[in-house]
Design brief:
Layout (H helix, E strand, L loop, with lengths): L1 E6 L10 H16 L5 E6 L4 E4 L3 H4 L4 H20 L4 E5 L2 E3 L1 H7 L3 E5 L5 E2 L11 H10 L5 H7 L2 E2 L1 H7 L4 E3 L4 H13 L3 H11 L1 H23 L1 H18 L1
Parallel strand pairs: 1-2, 2-4, 3-5, 4-6, 5-7, 6-9
Antiparallel strand pairs: 7-8
Helix pairs in contact: 1-3, 4-5, 5-10
Length: 247
C-alpha cells in the first residue's frame, strides 16, 4: 500500500505554517508505524506549487518561542523523512522554495513536472542560515561542484536547471506526474523491505553523522539568527520584491 501525503493550502501556494509542520509530522509518524504502508508519495494540491516556502503571514507574528518551536517542528519532519525505512517519492507539481525545496530533497526520489515552477533555497539572500539538517540534505543531493553556488547564490531554478544541478532526478509531463511517482514508488517498494531500509540507512550514515556532530556546534547560532528582528524584516522585503516581479 502506498500512502499519499498532499500539502493542501493552494491559496497560499501550500506555504508551510506551524500547523502544516505538525500535520506532516503526524502523517509521517503514521507511515512509520503502519506495517501495511510500503512507501509515500508526497505532493502539493493545485497546479502551482509543491511548497512555496514558509507562511510569511504567520512568521510575521511569531514570538521567539514560537519561532523556535516551528523550527524544531520542521527539523523533526526532516528527520522522520531521512530515517524512514520506506521509500519517499516527491512529486513536485510546482514551486518548491526554501523549506519546500529542502523537504523535496529529503525524499528518496524527486520527480518534477516539466515547466511547472521553480525550485531552490533563497535563504541566504535574506540572511537566514541553514539548520544543519537542511544544509546536509542539500549537500547530499546537489552536484558537488554546484553545491556552494546553489546555497550562496540563493537562486531558484526552472525544472531543466534543477535537473542539471541534481535537485531533481527526472522531469515528467505534468499530467503524468502522479502516475510516474507511483511507478517510481513501485520500483523501490518491490525491493525486499528490510534490505531497502538497511541500504537507505547505510547511504545516509555520513549525512546523519554530520547532522549529529555539527548540529550541536552550529544550530544554537542558527536559531539566534532566525529569531533576530532584522531577519523577519529582510524576509518581508524579499517576499515583496518577489511578488512584485511576478505580478
Amino acid at each position: 500500500m502506498h500512502v499519499y501525503i498532499t500539502l493542501n493550502r493552494p491559496k497560499v501556494l501550500n506555504a508551510l505554517n506551524h500547523q502544516t509542520w505538525d500535520d506532516l509530522r503526524t502523517a509521517f509518524e503514521a507511515v512509520r508505524d503502519d506495517g501495511e504502508a510500503r512507501g509515500v508519495i508526497l505532493t502539493g494540491a493545485g497546479d502551482k506549487a509543491f511548497i512555496a516556502g514558509a507562511d510569511i503571514n504567520e512568521l510575521a507574528h511569531f514570538t521567539a518561542v514560537e519561532a523556535e518551536e516551528a523550527s524544531a517542528g520542521g527539523q523533526a519532519v526532516l528527520n522522520l523523512v531521512e530515517n524512514l525505512g520506506k521509500p519517499v517519492i516527491a512529486a513536485i507539481n510546482g514551486h518548491a522554495i526554501a523549506g519546500g525545496c529542502v523537504l523535496a530533497c529529503a525524499a528518496d526520489c524527486r520527480l518534477m513536472a516539466a515547466q511547472s515552477g521553480r525550485i531552490g533555497v533563497p535563504e541566504l539572500l535574506v540572511g537566514v542560515p541553514f539548520p544543519t539538517i537542511a544544509l546536509e540534505i542539500m549537500r547530499s543531493i546537489t552536484a558537488p561542484q554546484q553545491f556552494p553556488a546553489v546555497l550562496y547564490g540563493g537562486a531558484t531554478f526552472d525544472p531543466a536547471q534543477a535537473l542539471e544541478r541534481g535537485l531533481v532526478d527526472a522531469l515528467v509531463a505534468p499530467d503524468t506526474l502522479i502516475e510516474q511517482a507511483l511507478a517510481a514508488a513501485g520500483s523501490l517498494t518491490a525491493l525486499p523491505p528490510a534490505a531497502f531500509a538497511l541500504t537507505k540507512q547505510q547511504i545516509r550514515v555520513p549525512f546523519l553523522r554530520r547532522v549529529r556532530e555539527d548540529g550541536a556546534q552550529f544550530d544554537v547560532t542558527v536559531q539566534e539568527l532566525w529569531e533576530a528582528p532584522t531577519t523577519l524584516t529582510a524576509i518581508r522585503a524579499y517576499v515583496a520584491r518577489t511578488f512584485k516581479r511576478s505580478s
